[in-house]
Structure formats: structure tokens, C-alpha cells
Predict the structure.
Amino acid sequence: MGLMDWMDVARGVVKSVQRVQDQVGPLERMAIQAMGSPSSKNLDDNLLTYLLALAAFDSYTLSGNCRGSLTLMITQFQNLNGSNMQNKLQFGIYEISEGRYSGKKILAYRGTDVTGLVTLLQDISLALPSLSYLGQPIREAISCGVEDALEQKPDFICGHSLGGLIAECVCSETGIPGASFNAPGPWSILPIHNLLTGDKYDGVKFEVHLTRNDPVSLFGGFLGPECTHIGRPIWHSGFGSESDNVIANHKMNLMLSELEKGR
């Protein structure tokens, strides 16, 4: 099979899984609500959601190019020139520069760096959290994320993809509000696979944003996205399953563009 054939197969799988999710997801959410399971609340604030998305987008480069809305105050690099390779996480601390949230601080965790070994090991570890050695990198990253949040004391936390999962786990330990974007779900019904270590997210304003036909949003959780995040997911349309590259649905710039229109 050629590359185009494999892409056709990938699109077909993603489209089928999305169709199942559309049918099963609402029933799963009803069951969760009926059981009274802990859950975060929505921010219900388009401007704040956009600012969190902007910080999550910039966390990949830590360039501070945040359209005049955010000021980059503190950086911790990872896997970049001049960075400390011992850092488990890359993050930025941003101060909101204008509007009703002026002066508030956002801690944004970066997602996967495909050129760096550390985050790739964390991704592999995410799929195998029950194995003592292979499961160690992701658990160490979450622990470091909690420590960073307690040290920096941000008003909000956020992240995209792997960074979003870490943000959800940090919220579970600290109760800090925020948002995750196109992240795999950290919770599992099986304790050996569960990455959520706290319950302080219950009632906290923390939004979960996912994109339809995004492989990470769909395949990230053991029981599906409706059951594995700390809050009820908010779904975005993306490019659809007929796009030439379904991976494009996962990219943070697409999510940011959609949120910018609604702020």
C-alpha cells in the first residue's frame, strides 16, 4: 500500500470512530451525570478561553508573539537550543495585558515536540502507564507540572495535546481553573491506567475543548472522550474527515482560529 492508500484507511477509521462517538457519547455523559461523578464546570467566557488558547499555542515556541494580549513573563525550555535537557516540561508564564483579566497569569504547558526525545517518551508512556518503567515518564511529567504550578501560583493553567492532559491532571491536584485543547483523556476506570491523582477539579471552572475527527481527541481515552476527561468536552468542527490530512484537525492553530472568531 502507498502513502495515499494508508491515508485513506486512516480517514476511514477516524470517520467511523467519530460516528460511533456521536451516537454513544451523549449516553455516556448521561450515565456520568446520573452517577454524580466529579466534573469541572465550563468557563463560559469566550475571551478567557481565547487567551488560554493563545498561551497554549505560543508555548511550543515561547516566542511571546501573543498579538498584544499576553506578555511572556517566565520561560522554561526543553529540547531547544540552550535549554536544559533535564527539564521534564516546557512551559511559559503569561500575564494578560488588557481587558477585565489584566494582570492575571496563565501557565501554559507545551504538548509533544516531535523532534525531542523527552516528550516522545512521555507519549509512549501515556499509552503504557501501567508498566513500571515505561509508565514512568508521563507520571514524572505530571508530578513536575504540579510542582511548577504550586511554585508559580498562576491564576489559570492550560495546554494542547500532551500539555492539555498535564493541565487536567494539575487541575485535579490543585483546583486551578483553565482549559485543555485536543488532549487525550487522563482518567481510566482501571486504576493502573488512571493518571488523575486528585479530585480537586470537581466544580472548578476548567473547559475541555476537542476537535471532531482528530485522532488524539478520539483515541486518547480508554472509554472514549466523554468519560475520560475532568469535564464535559466542548466539540469543534475542524476540517472534517474528508480533509487530505486528518492530522490537521489536531493542530492548535486551527483551534485558535476558531476560538478567535467567537471571542
